[in-house]
Design brief:
The complex is a heterodimer.
Chain A lengths: L28 H9 L9 E2 L2 E2 L8 H14 L3 H15 L5 E3 L1 H7 L2 E6 L9 H14 L4 E6 L3 H13 L3 E6 H6 L1 H9 L3 E5 L6 H14 L4 E3 L10 H9 L1 H14 L5 E6 L3 H7 L9 E9 L10 H4 L1 E5 L2 E5 L24 H8 L3 E7 H15 L5 H16 L4 E6 L7 H6 L7
Parallel strand pairs in A: 4-14, 5-6, 5-8, 6-7, 9-10, 9-14, 10-13
Antiparallel strand pairs in A: 1-2, 3-4, 11-12
Helix pairs in contact in A: 3-5, 4-15, 5-6, 5-10, 6-8, 10-12, 11-12, 15-16
Chain B lengths: L1 H14 L4 E7 L8 H11 L2 E5 L10 H12 L4 H11 L8 E4 L2 H7 L4 H7 L2 E5 L9 H8 L4 E6 L5 H9 L5 E4 L13 H13 L4 E4 L5 H7 L5 E4 L1 H8 L4 H6 L4
Parallel strand pairs in B: 1-2, 1-8, 2-3, 3-4, 4-5, 5-6, 6-7, 7-8
Classes of the chains: A alpha/beta, B alpha/beta.
Chain lengths: 433, 256
């Protein structure tokens, strides 16, 4: 297991080494990569190599066992998938387009393609997961659905899916996020959800997850917890990946149909990592496609200045899974900073920790200012206002374009930026209104 | 050895005709300076003491222990500090076995290889880790076993019968039988079905069974007494300490 930072389990820049102690049987990088290519993860224990697992109070174990049984029964069941895809097509508006970003391509000297999750119903990729999980909740006989939300996108998506499918919905949202994403609070209420402000902990996404877990512990039999990111105890990281994988499947087909070949690179932003795993999953075995994940670099590399768990974190257990975390030497989770509420989380999905460790995906941090600059460029060059989260991916694409001019780059444009107007008025538009 | 000291303390109380009293305090709450004195007072009034290691994300805890944990963290309380305090406390110890109650991450950060020796040297007899379920506990259990430290197992009213038998079969020290689904600190009515559940746990448990979560009154303890070997008081004690009351006096009101 994970020892104290400073000893030989961490390398010179604080990244973990997995070749010792953590788990005596933890395989080396080459073995992890070989297993990845064989679809070996998650294993039966919900492990993605050394990461993942199921670290929850005993009260939730039977509920997670039931959820696992539901996943086994329905997620590959033709009738369930037919209902899911019918909602995606008829209500969400899938497939979402793949747009050739001609303006950005000219500016950045590369060929930029945008996978337009901003055009999915409710304005972000989150709806793919919410529809699938609320359908699953109904199959499992749940009486109500609860969810956490950071930027409000998962809350809005779950509220909408519950309204569509006839389930009562309660959304936990940090008080800090309710203020910076105020438009989404009103949307959730209009969609019939009860929004519970979270004033404990850091009053952002992490505290909202803690509070949702407390709610679920109180009624594990009647309540379905619709987790919005690729985090949490097994089988959530698997469920979210499977439901979001539609993004990459569509994008891969569209690239082939519209350009005749695969992209040279695919980039996505990573908070908990649901849109990134959704985009990357279809490309993991295409070894010639470079995969790049962009985390929230916030204001700098110091603890508390960012939300970049893969770039700066150390291994540990938070909210049900073993992954990389922003924590101090005593294992206390640290408050994070990002201009984007949706990336403002001190952990990351266990599959991303694996993809980094196995060397299949590279992860970099993008600071607040660089993300906002990319947002402004996308508005001006493409007539698209992207979410601040997605703008981290755009900034990553720009870096890639500058390093490797002329490459064909697929960008996961995970959501639209209308929800970010309060933040943009305080930043990019400061003094202009 | 150390395992046995926990179950022996609980059995001794039961043999004297009363349920054992197990008390939880958050280490260093409300102040670091008062920790050892508070611990001595609590230990003098109960049979077993759980010392809470504060964590930033206590997902199984209600508002009281969230609050006490935050205050303790703000004062710089860490597992390292707690173990140092306990090592010097040991000389003045009353004899009530001490357990550490900690979420997993502070233990991982301390180092699972170093923890058993450090805990044993501080006089700790066992650990309670609320987010470490049976399926994930093999490494921790093996590490603690090398120093005869108990890893206390939870069971709950929603634990299926077969799983209950599996969980209890490997239990050490005592079985922590949660009174209800939910977080710590809520008031619990203790309906007959919950009493039946405690009876079922005792039938399969080789070690004593203690009821915890939401125990606040003497009436509750009296109702539970025929069905359990001990009761665990946490949030209600922390609230008494918050109100500035003498913790030992409060605990004596719960002791039958």
């Amino acid at each position: 297991m994970a020892p104290h930072p400073g000893d030989e389990t961490f390398n010179e820049i604080g990244q973990p080494r997995f070749d010792m102690k953590l788990e005596p049987q933890a395989p080396d990088k080459e073995t992890l990569l070989a297993n990845l290519m064989k679809d070996a993860y998650p294993d039966a224990q919900g492990r993605f190599g050394p990461f993942g697992g199921r670290y929850v109070p005993e009260t939730l174990v039977p509920a997670l066992d039931r959820l696992q049984a539901g996943v086994d029964r329905y997620l590959r069941d033709p009738a369930f998938l037919e209902a899911f895809h019918a909602e995606l097509a008829g209500w969400v508006g899938r497939p979402t387009p793949l747009t050739h970003a001609r303006g950005l391509s000219r500016r950045w000297g590369a060929e930029i393609w945008l996978k337009r999750e901003d055009l999915a119903h409710t304005g972000a990729h989150k709806i793919n997961n919410s529809v699938g999980q609320v359908l699953l909740a109904k199959k499992l006989g749940a009486k109500r659905v609860i969810a956490e939300t950071g930027a409000g996108q998962h809350g809005v998506a779950t509220a909408a899916a519950c309204a569509r499918l006839g389930m009562p919905c309660t959304v936990y949202m940090g008080a800090v996020d309710m203020e910076r994403q105020a438009p989404n609070v009103g949307r959730m209420k209009l969609l019939g959800a009860t929004v519970m402000p979270v004033t404990s902990g850091d009053r952002t996404l992490r505290a909202a997850v803690d509070e949702a877990l407390r709610d679920w512990v109180s009624d594990p039999d009647g309540t379905y917890y619709c987790l919005g990111s690729a985090i949490g105890p097994h089988p959530y990281p698997y469920i979210v990946r499977e439901l979001q994988a539609v993004i990459g499947r569509e994008a891969r087909e569209q690239m082939l149909a519209q350009t005749g070949r695969l992209p040279d690179a695919a980039v996505a932003c990573v908070g908990g990592g649901s849109n990134a795993i959704g985009l990357f999953h279809a490309f993991v075995k295409d070894r010639e496609v470079e995969l790049l994940g962009l985390e929230a670099g916030g204001q700098g590399s110091g603890l508390g200045q960012n939300a970049a768990s893969l770039s700066y974190g150390t291994p540990g257990v938070l909210q049900g899974c073993y992954s990389l975390l922003l924590q101090d030497a005593d294992g206390q989770i640290q408050e994070t900073h990002s201009v984007s509420a949706g990336l403002d989380y001190p952990g990351v999905g266990p599959e991303h920790a694996l993809l980094m460790t196995a060397g299949r995906v590279r992860y970099e941090a993008v600071g607040d200012d660089e993300a906002l600059a990319a947002l402004a460029e996308c508005c001006a060059a493409e007539g698209i206002l992207p979410a601040i989260e997605s703008s981290h991916a755009l900034a990553g694409a720009k870096r890639l374009a500058q390093a490797q001019p002329g490459k064909r780059i697929l960008v996961g444009l995970s959501g639209r930026g209308d929800k970010d107007m309060p933040t943009l008025q305080r930043t990019l538009l400061k003094g202009q209104l | 050895m150390a395992h046995d000291s926990i179950s022996a303390a609980i059995r001794a109380a039961k043999a004297a005709g009363r349920p054992a009293l197990v008390a939880y305090i958050t280490a260093g709450f409300p102040t670091r300076a008062g920790f050892r004195e508070q611990l001595a007072a609590v230990a003098s009034a109960v049979d077993v003491v759980e010392i809470g290691v504060p964590f930033s994300d206590p997902m199984a805890d209600g508002t009281t222990i969230q609050r006490s944990s935050r205050v303790a963290l703000e004062q710089g309380v860490s597992l390292r500090w707690i173990l140092e305090e306990l090592a010097s406390f040991r000389q003045e110890a009353s004899g009530a076995p001490l357990l550490l109650m900690s979420y997993l991450n502070p233990l991982l950060a301390f180092g699972v290889e170093k923890l058993p020796q450090a805990a044993a040297e501080a006089g700790v007899a066992g650990l309670i880790v609320p987010d470490l379920p049976y399926e994930e506990c093999a490494d921790m259990r093996a590490a603690l076993a090398a120093r005869q430290l108990a890893l206390v197992q939870f069971v709950t009213p929603v634990t299926p019968v077969q799983r209950m038998a599996k969980l209890c079969a490997g239990a050490e020290g005592f079985v922590y039988a949660v009174t209800m689904t939910g977080t710590t600190g809520k008031n619990v009515a203790v309906p007959q079905e919950v009493l039946d559940y405690f009876d079922r746990v005792r039938q399969v448990s080789p070690v004593p069974v203690c009821a915890g979560f939401g125990i606040r009154s003497r009436e509750q303890v009296e109702r539970l007494a025929p069905h359990v070997d001990g009761v665990i008081v946490g949030s209600a004690l922390v609230e008494a300490i918050e109100r500035g009351e003498d913790p030992a006096a409060f605990l004596r009101t719960l002791r039958l």
